[in-house]
Design a protein that fits this description.
This protein has 190 residues and is mainly β. The chain is built from one helix and nine strands, in the order H-E-E-E-E-E-E-E-E-E. It has an eight-stranded antiparallel barrel. Strand 6 and strand 7 form a beta hairpin.
């Protein structure tokens, strides 16, 4: 993560001058961040018993780094992460993959193939060997110079094939996690 942050800062510092030298065309390096925060509260009463309350929160982050060609074709890499809290558990997940898409006139379409991923449901249940697909749809407004702001929707479908429960490998296990969520988008194009 530290290497990604250093590379991002260097691109922001040097990329803007390269963008200006090319005349600010439609092609360039794309660095994008998508964020979503959600909370849920569930009140349950079973067969007239004592009401039970459950609360959860979750933060989702997408990071995209790639190149936009003058035709609008986008090629890049994607990294997703999720962290949350639910009933004392702190689930978290991450996935990394490749992206192909289109960007033009403010519209954004990125299709992802995630090559690796992990999902920790809690301290004792950990899934790994994840792979799957994702799609980001959105619209970006140019706010100032290279900075863009917008909104979008992110779809993810990841399947995990290895389970470790209480530090023991569990054979013949799999889990599929599918989400569709709104995103607030921040982007730099150099």
């Amino acid at each position: 993560m530290k290497k990604i942050l250093i590379a991002s800062v260097m691109m922001m510092a040097f990329g803007s001058s390269a963008w200006a030298a090319r005349g600010g065309g439609d092609s360039g390096i794309y660095l994008g961040l998508g964020l979503n925060y959600s909370t849920a509260k569930v009140d349950v009463t079973v067969a007239g018993g004592t009401p039970t309350e459950g609360k959860s929160s979750q933060t989702n982050t997408d990071l995209g780094l790639g190149y936009i060609f003058s035709s609008g074709l986008y090629l890049g890499v994607a990294m997703d992460s999720m962290s949350g809290e639910s009933g004392g558990d702190k689930p978290k997940s991450s996935a990394m993959g490749l992206s192909l898409g289109y960007m033009g006139r403010g519209f954004l379409f990125h299709a992802h193939y995630f090559l690796s991923g992990s999902y920790d449901a809690n301290d004792t249940t950990k899934w790994s060997s994840g792979s799957g697909i994702g799609v980001n749809l959105g619209y970006l407004f140019n706010v100032a110079g290279n900075f863009h702001l917008g909104g979008g929707i992110a779809y993810r479908s990841l399947e995990f094939k290895k389970l470790k429960a209480n530090d023991v490998d569990v054979d013949d296990s799999s889990a599929k996690v599918t989400t569709t969520e709104p995103r607030l988008l921040f982007a730099f194009v150099f």
